[in-house]
Amino acid sequence: ATGYIAGSGTVTVTPLTMSFSGSPLTVNPGAQGTLTLNLTNGAAPASGLTVNLSSSATGVATVPATVNFAAGATSATVTVTGVAGGSATITASATGIASATATVNVPIGISVAPVSVVLGLSANLQVTLAQAAPAGGVTINLSSSDTTKVTVPATVTIAAGATSPATAPQVTGAGIGSASITASATGYISGSGTVTVTAPTMSFSGSPLTVNPGAQGTLTLNLTTGKAPAGGLTVSLNSSATGVATVPATVNFAAGATSATVTVTGVASGSATITASATGITSATATVNVPIRIT
């Protein structure tokens, strides 16, 4: 100013600092998640601020090429897309500002293929990793949603570098119906598949059977394409004419058995149909003839 000695001073502009929050981020393959990029020591200028983004492994996770801060903003959202199992570093950079990094982890998925098995029998369960197991291998936990229908081992191991176990785990049909088998491991995406237990076929051998009044004879009830489960199998029996021939109310198959003996008692002359039935299994029939006694 006129009549004054001019003075001067230095103004130091402190640079902005960038940092991510929400790191490490876990996002599944094919899904999206978000990181927040933050500015400290100030806000975006009046013209806004464009920051460049990059992923160290685009085969694992991708990000847009840039993210924009609106004027005066101190944070911006970065969308991350999972591609395949692994880890990637996301880097944010802008001229004159120190870069910021964040870690993104994409877990590997486990798949379980559906399978059918006949009651009392076992079948291979296909458990597969989307990518090869790391050094040391992976122990997969297995569980059944209904152990009265399907049983499965508690675990199976997949060796390093492999995507499936050397020996497939066995599922066993414990009851007619279905159950969901779930495979899980720490740091992996769980998978599940349905195991369907189908019915064996029941049939009689020894039919037609002839038995005299007051005497006994036997029929054999057979299971084909399957066998009795670990808890055994109880089959209901019925005679169409108890005045001609009778049978016990039930017959039991021992665990693992494929046949059971049915005792038939002749009562009086005539013919009767013996029916064997069990839930979920097609019934079987046999004919019993009781001849007329000549005195």
Could you describe the 3D structure shown?
The chain has 295 residues and is mainly β. The chain contains no helices and 29 strands. The chain has strands spanning 17-21, 25-26, 32-40, 49-55, 61-62, 66-69, 75-82, 86-94, 97-106, 108-112, 115-118, 122-124, 127-129, 138-144, 150-151, 155-158, 170-173, 177-184, 188-189, 191-198, 201-205, 209-210, 216-224, 233-239, 245-246, 250-253, 259-266, 270-278, 281-290. It has a five-stranded mixed beta sheet with strand order 2-9-8-4-6, with no helix packed on it. Strands 11-20-18-14-16 form a five-stranded mixed beta sheet, with no helix packed on it. It is rod-shaped, with a radius of gyration of 37 Å. The N and C termini lie far apart (151 Å).
- Count the DSSP helices: 0
Give the total of beta strands: 29
* Mean pLDDT over the residues: 95
Question: Based on the structure, what is the oligomeric state of the protein chains?
Answer: single chain
Beginning-to-end CA distance, first to last residue: 151 Å
| Main sheet: strands, sense, barrel | 5 strands, mixed
Strand order of the largest sheet: 2-9-8-4-6
Runs in which pLDDT lies below 50 for 5 or more consecutive residues are none
Radius of gyration: 37 Å
Structural class: mainly beta
Fraction of helical residues:
under 10%
- Globally, the shape reads rod-shaped
How do the SSEs run, as a string of H and E? Answer: EEEEEEEEEEEEEEEEEEEEEEEEEEEEE
- Residue fraction in strands: over 45%
